[in-house]
Design goal:
Largest sheet: 8 strands, parallel, barrel
Helix content: 25-40%
Shape: globular
Bound molecules: 4-nitrophenyl beta-D-glucopyranoside
Number of helices: 15
Strand content: 15-25%
Radius of gyration: 21 Å
CATH superfamily: Glycosidases
Number of domains: 1
Length: about 450
């Protein structure tokens, strides 16, 4: 095949997962409940009453899963460390058995020639810390920094890239404003406090990691940067997009990369908070330098002048952003009903490259939920996923051509898994998981991705 779209030498080809979504073994080896164990047991919160109790049983099948990664030819694997597995109550000493699991995982990866990329927080806050106030409570940020230090002490000689937080926007606004994610609170003012304390947690963790890690370690943060477009050039639509950008993107980007809060964000949230929970020195701590930025992208967001479509559900968007009308982008949709629009990924990468010169970018998640189907031979076909991944990788290639310093791409996800509020009913994996037998079957997309990695690019 002609390799029309070749990626730079050394490009990192990865896949991503998260602890609660794949591990299972929820009550084993001293692990205590996280907010997702609690939330998934509240009737009506997760479809079909699904929980992560067993998930893809990765905790017991890790060697088999690493063998799959090796067959795919991955150069990198992004996983998350379950906080309640390594520090059960969110305080105090480490739990050795939990750390041992991640040591074995990192060793297996290194043996297979795969770089371990670890995320410290992919949404599994120890339940005890939520009971003490959760992310709206300042002390949670200090607890997170202690946890980061303990993880770095145990795994610092093995993990190549450290990511502090995954998608703090989701943790703050889906967790504390719309309440569709754990802990399921619906208090927009609390969500704004949560966002600041997540930023602070990130900054304090960067300092803790720098102190504990050998120098070459890469320290990063992953944001779900919203690719927000105004519906039209009309000033009211442009203003609507600006409001979504303020509380969707710049609420994290500005403190982390520039040590400031966006002025328009403060105005847009004036009725909810005076931001007095931001103490002197916080923004300096939040803006501790990072070595790269992780970007998760699935779908664009189109904003128009309000009012929003009535949904009967609390909005994730606080203040003036909550009065914006979000319009679905046109075109085909995935099984999540998310529009397929690869240009949005190009827009996000080129924007960040322009705004953050000198900060390398990693696409830390990108992928799609689709139903797959097995033929009589047992092969699992997922043509829409192959098309989605191909188009989005082409957009990454185009962004690199336009000057964006994109160092790698991690698809979401290696395995079918617990898709949060959708439970096991939505499949993002390139490897099919039969949740009754726990049998793994690489889908067509897995074979396709192995070929892309082997060739270092896309055929056309
Ligand atoms: C991300 N939204 O979640 C997460 O990082 C993954 O754990 C997850 O499985 C994946 O994307 C697919 O959903 C998101 O509603 C969940 O805007 C919801 C939203 C965005 C990201």
């Amino acid at each position: 095949m002609n390799i029309a779209l070749k990626f730079p030498a050394g490009f990192r080809w990865g896949a991503a997962t998260a602890a609660y979504q794949i591990e299972g073994a929820a009550a084993e080896d001293g692990r205590t409940p996280s907010i997702w164990d609690t939330f998934s047991r509240v009737p009506g919160r997760v479809r079909n009453g699904d929980t992560g109790d067993i998930a893809a049983d990765h905790y017991h099948r890790m060697p088999e899963d690493v063998a799959l990664m090796r067959e795919l030819g991955l150069t990198d694997y992004r996983f998350s460390i379950g906080w309640p597995r390594v520090q059960p109550t969110g305080r105090g000493p480490a739990l050795q058995k939990g750390l041992d699991f991640y040591r074995r995982l990192a060793d297996a990866l290194l043996d297979a020639g795969i770089r371990p990329v670890a995320t410290l927080y992919h949404w599994d806050l120890p339940q005890e810390l939520e009971e003490a106030g959760g992310w709206p409570h300042r002390d949670t940020a200090e607890r997170f920094a202690e946890y980061a230090a303990l993880a770095a002490d145990a795994l610092g000689d093995r993990v190549v890239t450290w990511t502090t937080l995954n998608e703090p926007w989701c943790a703050a606004f889906l967790g504390y404003s719309s309440g569709v994610h754990a802990p399921g609170r619906t208090d927009p003012a609390a969500a704004l406090r949560a966002a600041h304390h997540l930023n602070l947690a990130h900054g304090r963790a960067v300092a803790a990691l720098r102190a504990a890690l050998p120098t070459p370690a890469e320290i990063s943060l992953t944001l779900n940067v919203h690719a927000v477009r105004p519906l039209s050039d009309a000033p009211a639509d442009v203003a609507a997009a600006r409001r979504i950008d303020a509380v969707g993107n710049r609420i994290f980007l500005d403190p982390v990369f520039h040590g400031r809060l966006p002025a328009d964000l403060i105005e847009d949230t004036a009725g909810l908070t005076d931001w007095s929970f931001v103490h002197d020195g916080d923004l300096r701590a939040v803006s501790a330098p990072v070595d790269s930025l992780g970007v998760n992208y699935y779908s664009p967001t189109v904003a128009a002048a309000g009012p929003p479509e009535p949904s009967g559900e609390p909005s994730p968007w606080p203040g003036a952003a909550g009065r914006v009308r979000l319009v679905p982008a046109p075109g085909p949709r995935t099984a999540m009903d998310w529009p397929v629009d690869a240009d949005g990924l190009y827009e996000v990468l080129t924007r960040l490259s322009g705004e953050l010169p000198g900060t390398p970018l990693l696409v830390t998640e990108n992928g799609a939920a689709y139903d797959d189907y097995a033929d009589p031979s047992g092969a699992v076909h997922d043509p829409e996923r192959v098309a989605y991944l191909d188009a989005h990788l082409a957009a990454v290639h185009r962004a690199i051509g336009a000057g964006a310093d994109v160092r790698g791409y991690f698809l979401w996800s290696l395995l079918d898994n617990f898709e949060w509020a959708y439970g096991y009913g939505r499949r993002f994996g390139i490897v099919h998981v039969d949740f009754a037998s726990q049998r793994r079957t690489p889908k067509d997309s897995a074979h396709w991705y192995a070929g892309v990695i082997a060739r270092g690019g896309l055929g056309r």
